[in-house]
Amino acid sequence: MSRTSSFIKPRTFPIPDDEQERLKSLASYGIVGGPPLPDLPSVVELAAYVCGVPNAVVNIISASQQLQMAAFGFEASACAREDSMCAISMVEPETVVVRDATQDPRFADNPFVTGEINEVRFYASSQLRDSDGHVLGTLCVFDQEPHELTEGQRQCLDKLAKMVLDVLELHRHSQMLEQALDTVHRTSRELQRSNSSLQHFAGQVSHDLKNPLTGVLGFVALLADIPAVAADPDGKRCVDRALSSATRMWRMIEDVLAHASLGGRPSFAEVNLESVARNVVEDVGTAIAATQAHVEVGPLPRVVGDATQLRVLIQNMVSNSLKFRDRGRECRISLTAEESPTGWTLNIADNGIGIPVQDRPKVLEMFTRLRTDIEGSGIGLATCQRIVEAHGASLVIDETPGGGTTMRITLPKPADQVALALVS
Question: Structure pTM?
Answer without folding.
Answer: 0.49
